[in-house]
Design a protein that fits this description.
The chain is of the alpha/beta class. It has eight helices and ten strands. A hairpin with a 6-residue loop joins strand 5 and strand 6.
Length: 278
C-alpha cells in the first residue's frame, strides 16, 4: 500500500503528484473511500460546490479514496490511498486503514511525503525516511531522518503499523521552501524513482521528467529575477555540495515548515470566512 495525504505532509504537492502519476500510469481503479463525516471539521476543510451542466450544484466532500492496480512486470498488486490529512480522530482513521490492509493481505505500507526545506532547486532532490523495520529501510536505501517534533497523519499511521508489526516506511522528498507555491514534479519524480527501484520495476517517467525540466526552467527564471533570492540559492548550493544527504532535512527545517504551514493555513481559513460573509 502506498499513501499520500494533501496538507502538512505534502509540501509543494510533491507527494500527491507522485501518487496521482502512479494511479494514471498503472490504471488504478477506485474501489473504496472513507466517509469524511467522522474525520473532518468542515469549517477547517470545507467541501466544494461544483456546477454540472452549468446548472446543477453538487457537493464534493473531502475524500480519502482507495484504488487498486496490478504492478506491471510483477505478480504483485498495489493499493493506493490518496486523500487529505484528516482533522479529527487520527487513531480511529489509522485503524480503518490497517483493518483494510489486513483484509487485503497488504504486506508493506509506504507513505509518500514532501517537506519544505533549505535545499536548492538546482540539485538532486534529497530523499529521507523513517520506518518501523530496519531491513525495509535498508532495502529502500533510505537515509533515516533524525527529526523529533510535531507530526502528521503519516507519523501516526507508522506508529500504528509498528504496534501491529506491519512493515512500513515513509519516503520524504525535500523541496525548496522559496518555491513552495509551485507544484513540484521534481519531488514527485524522485519519489516515483525511489518506489520503482524498491519494486524492481521499469516505470515510464517521461511525463514527470518533462514536467521537471519545465519546472526547473521556471523556478530558475523566477530566482534570477530577484537578486537577493539568487544569492540565497547560491548559498544553498554551496551548503548542499558540502554536506551529507543524511543531514537534510534538519529538525529546524521541519519545524519551520510546520510553522509556515500553520500560518498559511490560518490565513486561508480567514480569507474563506471573509469571502463567505461577503
Amino acid at each position: 500500500m502506498v499513501t499520500s495525504f494533501r496538507g502538512w505532509n505534502d509540501g509543494a504537492q510533491g507527494a500527491s503528484l507522485a501518487a496521482e502519476f502512479l494511479a494514471r500510469q498503472w490504471d488504478a481503479t477506485q474501489f473504496a473511500d472513507v466517509d469524511p463525516e467522522e474525520f473532518f471539521d468542515f469549517q477547517d476543510v470545507r467541501p466544494h460546490v461544483k456546477l454540472e451542466d452549468g446548472l446543477t450544484r453538487r457537493i464534493n466532500w473531502p475524500e480519502n479514496a482507495f484504488s487498486h492496480a496490478a504492478i506491471p512486470g510483477t505478480d504483485r498488486h498495489l493499493v493506493l490511498l490518496q486523500g487529505i490529512e484528516p482533522s479529527l480522530k487520527w487513531r480511529t482513521f489509522t485503524k480503518l486503514i490497517l483493518g483494510l490492509a489486513e483484509e487485503l493481505g497488504v504486506e508493506t505500507i509506504l507513505t509518500f511525503g514532501a517537506l519544505l526545506a533549505d535545499v536548492p532547486h538546482t540539485r538532486d532532490v534529497p530523499i529521507t525516511g523513517a520506518g518501523s523495520d530496519s531491513e525495509l529501510m535498508d532495502e529502500l536505501g533510505l537515509a533515516a531522518s533524525r527529526y523529533e517534533g510535531p507530526t502528521g497523519i503519516v507519523g501516526v499511521l507508522h506508529d500504528a503499523c509498528r504496534e501491529v508489526g506491519l512493515p512500513s516506511a515513509s519516503i520524504w522528498a525535500a523541496v525548496p521552501h522559496y518555491a513552495s507555491l509551485a507544484p513540484s514534479p521534481k519531488a514527485a519524480l524522485a519519489l516515483c524513482e525511489k518506489l520503482a527501484r524498491f519494486l524492481k520495476v521499469e516505470v515510464d517517467l517521461t511525463e514527470l521528467e518533462e514536467a521537471r525540466d519545465s519546472y526547473q526552467e521556471q523556478v530558475t527564471a523566477a530566482v534570477a529575477a530577484d537578486e537577493e533570492t539568487a544569492r540565497y540559492v547560491v548559498q544553498l548550493e554551496e551548503q548542499s555540495d558540502a554536506i551529507d544527504e543524511a543531514d537534510i532535512p534538519s529538525g529546524d527545517a521541519l519545524a519551520a515548515e510546520l510553522s509556515r504551514f500553520l500560518r498559511e493555513h490560518e490565513a486561508r481559513r480567514r480569507e474563506e470566512e471573509d469571502d463567505a460573509r461577503s
